[in-house]
Specification:
The chain contains 17 helices and 12 strands. It is α/β, with parallel strands linked by helices and 384 residues long. The model has no long low-confidence stretch (mean pLDDT 91).
Length: 384
């Protein structure tokens, strides 16, 4: 009976183990995450490569911001990926204004290729510089961004590929609820320095919004041909570079760039639905393992605190561990909100954001099982 009582007293603290790991790793990673802030002393040249499909709202701002980084730019190349909006008209106007801007017309999508990956391949074929910087159309580069990214890639870490996270702009409730969880996911389960210190390709986090790559190493890894059907092309590309002997660094690009990834609840839902399950290797057991881990770490402490406060479970037994769990959830969220200019009030809605993210994950699994992943007006089979 005494042993049973001891186990009963210990049980509420056992589910604190994963959130404690997440809490400590997050604080560690926030300190040691490389930040783009110093300029390179080198003279390396970069081709900025931009895939664009129906980007009439973003393309002009993206290009004007990119073209102000003139010191290290060889040229800026845009692949118009069969846009059906005003994107081609805007590109023609900008070409007359900027001599260093080149526009290529995307070819029809071949069978077995994902749309963005094929556009990136065409851009690669048109590039000339030794370094290529891929950015999404919703990314705005600040002045000297290229120089500061080159500093991290070449001067400080001597890497072959850099992937960076811009400052995420969030306006709607869905963006503010879910997008901060990107940082929670990045920091909670992996010591970030292992990405560039370890040769094991399993240690990888990537963000396709900004990817600065040594062209020689990219081709050595098979280029985009090797990942032609990939939905999570950023992760697969960087993993291949690491497998081929290259060194990859994952960085904080918030001081040199901004991005508005999604602009509505619908785009948040669809955007994450297309790649969460794919990013987990299309493994159902892995997905439900991650869902369980996120529930225990990021939702259960709030549920337990509420129930113990209402007297639905033993307050003396559950109140303290519940408070500890909530504290270890909220403190990192508040620190990240201050550092990355996120809405502080939405930190208090953290468990609801996680619930929303878990719902998206289940929808991602449903899409993949139906072999109908939708994005940018195209449908993909996960095995295509």
């Amino acid at each position: 009976m005494a042993q049973f009582n001891d186990l009963k007293l210990l049980f509420p603290y056992l589910w604190l183990i994963p959130i404690t790991i997440s809490f400590l790793l997050t604080l560690f990673n926030l300190v040691f995450w490389p930040t783009a802030k110093n300029k390179t002393k080198g003279t390396g040249k970069v081709d900025i490569l931009i895939p664009a499909r129906n980007e009439e709202e973003n393309i002009e701002t993206c290009l004007r911001q990119a073209l102000q980084n003139s010191q290290h730019i060889n040229k800026v190349v845009v692949c118009d990926d069969n846009s059906t909006d005003k994107t081609p008209t805007i590109l023609k106007k900008l070409q007359k204004e900027f001599k260093s801007l080149k526009v290529i017309q995307g070819k029809s999508l071949p069978k077995g290729w994902a749309g963005k990956v094929f556009a990136c391949q065409q851009l690669l074929e048109s590039s000339e510089a030794e370094n290529v910087l891929y950015i999404d159309c919703d990314v705005s580069l600040k002045k000297d961004a290229v120089s500061k990214l080159l500093y991290l890639l070449e001067d400080k870490y001597k890497c072959h590929a850099l992937t960076g996270v811009p400052l995420q702009k969030m306006e709607t409730w869905a963006e503010k609820l879910v997008l901060p969880l990107l940082y929670t996911t990045y920091f909670s389960w992996l010591p970030i320095p292992l990405i560039w210190r370890s040769k094991d390709p399993k240690f990888m986090v990537a963000m396709g919004q900004i990817m600065l790559l040594k062209k020689k190493e990219l081709l050595k890894a098979g280029g985009f041909e090797a990942i032609k059907s990939s939905i999570v092309d950023d992760m697969d590309l960087c993993t291949n570079i690491k497998k081929s002997g290259g060194k990859v660094i994952f960085t904080d690009a918030s001081k040199v760039s901004t991005c508005r990834m999604y602009d509505s609840a619908k785009s948040v839902w669809e955007g994450f639905s297309k790649n969460i399950y794919e990013g987990l290797g299309r493994k159902t057991t892995t997905l439900f393992g991650v869902l369980s881990l996120y529930y225990i770490s990021f939702i259960l402490p709030f549920v337990s605190l509420t129930f113990s406060w209402l007297g639905l479970i033993e307050k003396d037994l559950y109140l303290i561990p519940s408070l500890l769990g909530v504290f270890m959830n909220l403190l990192p969220r508040i620190i990240m909100a201050l550092r990355f200019k996120q809405a502080l009030t939405f930190c208090l809605l953290h468990p609801f954001g996680v619930l929303f993210l878990l719902s998206i994950s289940l929808n991602s699994w449903r899409w993949s099982k139906k072999e109908n992943i939708k994005w940018r007006g195209r449908s993909y089979s996960p095995t295509s």
